[in-house]
Amino acid sequence: MENVVTDAPPPSRFSPDDLDNFAAPPPQPTPILVVSPANPSPAPGLLILLISPTSLALLPHLSSSPPLHASLLLPELPLERSHPPIRVYLHEGALLAAAHGAVPAHRARAVARSLVSALQPEEVLVLDAVLSGSYRGRLAADEPVEGKLETRAARMRGGVSAARGVATLAPPGSMVDGLGAAVMAECEMRGKAASMVLTWPEGARPVEFGVMRRVAAELGVDPAQAAVGRVSGRAELDALYT
Question: Tens place of pLDDT for every residue, the chain, 242 residues?
């Protein structure tokens, strides 16, 4: 009779390469938020996160180039990249966080945590877009639509900033993911008031949406002059880096 304690175990049915698939992945480095020494933290009342091409189209039309407050870096990205994924600007007491580069999906949670914990805004407004593959064909291709999702704290306040006049998105389905969704989850856990406004189509002009017109009014921008084509590839935002 075999002794299960002292006898040698049978050979594994898995090769060493297969066993590596069950190992925990190496920990990812923490994102780094580098704050400009010339612009110390202002303890902002509002953080506006610009993710969609429609919202980013407003930046080049600001009356004056906003001073850079901070840059968020991902240590694993090549250093030769021309610009960090996210830059945070100061504009009349508010912070504008512009997603100039794509944030990998598996890093969205860490980036959201770094932004919210380091900047400590009282309210957060996320401007994102519905991707064409995320709404299962329920939206007309050329009909502008906007809707919002809110944290519990935002609903208790009646909304956040320019999102107060936007109807609640229904049904939310599975169309929200990436950095915007991660920021909303982080704000919900921290009890912060946050609203995320999603617009459709992804490349529509800012003037077609009420929320963009209200945000443009707060920033002193004429939304009729902002065209999404000007931020295609985000190359024309280089003027803000000087």
Answer: 555 566 666 666 666 666 666 666 677 788 888 887 766 556 678 999 999 998 998 888 876 778 888 888 888 776 555 567 899 998 877 899 998 777 888 889 999 999 999 898 999 999 998 876 666 556 666 778 888 899 999 999 888 888 888 888 765 555 678 899 999 999 999 999 999 998 888 778 888 888 888 888 888 888 777 776 544 334 434 444 33
The answer as to whether 8 is a domain residue is: no
- What range does the domain containing 208 cover? 29-237
Residues 182, 111 contacting (CB under 8 angstroms) = yes
Distances (CA, A) of 65 to 180, 217, 237: 25, 16, 10
In this structure, is residue 14 part of a structural domain? Answer: no
15 falls within a domain: no
CATH number (domain holding residue 200)? 3.40.50.10900
Torsions phi, psi of 194, nearest 5? -145, 140
Q: How many domains does the chain fold into?
A: 1
Which pTM value belongs to this model? 0.79
